[in-house]
Design a protein that fits this description.
It is found in: Cytoplasm. It contains nine helices and five strands. By secondary structure, the protein is α+β, with helices and mostly antiparallel strands. A hairpin with a 2-residue loop joins strand 4 and strand 5 (57-63).
Length: 219
């Protein structure tokens, strides 16, 4: 299994890149969002990868974070969701957006991805709803792929063009805090997802306060 690739981008297409690793070129397919984040031709990049093996085909799919890779694995486990649909969903929503949509049962958000119909979107939400809490928590611990140890992969003169390292996820931290307060994973994930949607860019304390208000008994 090829789990990560570090090398120089030789070619960029609309949905894939050709990465040269010590003279061997790997075609790696990525979501629109990931493609937009990659450096230009001639620059060095590192991507987490998932290899799909079929009788007549070997395909590599690339991701900037382990969370994105894990969501891809989960999405493609849903009946009717192939790699193309998964990349469309991730490209449209991003990992945090997928987590929020599924935690809130918002299949309309999933349906916004190109090529994903209402039945598939509803199935994604239903099948993966129990996975949203753990994936939201994962957001606080994963690290983005970077172009490290390039001298060991290609010529020593190469200079990496790293993707910025993300800060700790406020959603993950808020989810952990609510869990420590005794709230169930499903309820906590739903509240944090709704709070994050209503307060884009909010820090952890703000998300916790907003989520607690949502979880407070009504009436």
């Amino acid at each position: 299994m090829i789990g990560k690739i570090t090398g120089r981008i030789d070619y960029r297409a609309l949905d894939h890149v050709l990465i040269d690793v010590r003279g061997v070129g790997y075609l790696v397919y990525c979501s629109d969002r990931t493609m937009a984040s990659l450096p230009g031709v001639g620059q060095v990049v590192a991507l987490f990868t998932d290899l799909v093996v079929r009788e007549d085909l070997l395909q590599l799919f690339g991701f900037t974070t382990l969370a994105e890779k894990e969501w891809h694995r989960l999405l493609t486990s849903v009946q009717g969701v192939g790699a193309k649909a998964s990349l469309a969903i991730l490209g449209t929503l991003g990992t945090d957006g997928v987590s929020r949509a599924i935690a809130l049962g918002d299949w309309n958000a999933v349906k916004a991805a190109k090529g994903v119909g209402p039945k598939i979107a509803q199935r994604v939400v239903l099948d993966l709803k129990d996975k949203a809490p753990s994936m939201m928590a994962m957001g606080g611990t994963v690290a983005q792929a970077r172009g490290e140890a390039v001298a060991e992969v290609i010529e020593t003169s190469a200079t990496a063009a790293p993707i910025p390292q993300p800060s700790s996820s406020a959603q993950a931290d808020a989810l952990s805090a609510l869990g420590n307060l005794g709230y169930g994973p499903g309820d906590a994930a739903g509240a944090v997802a709704q709070a994050a949607g209503e307060n884009p860019g909010a820090d952890t304390p703000t998300l916790i306060r907003a989520a607690l208000k949502l979880l407070a008994p009504k009436g």
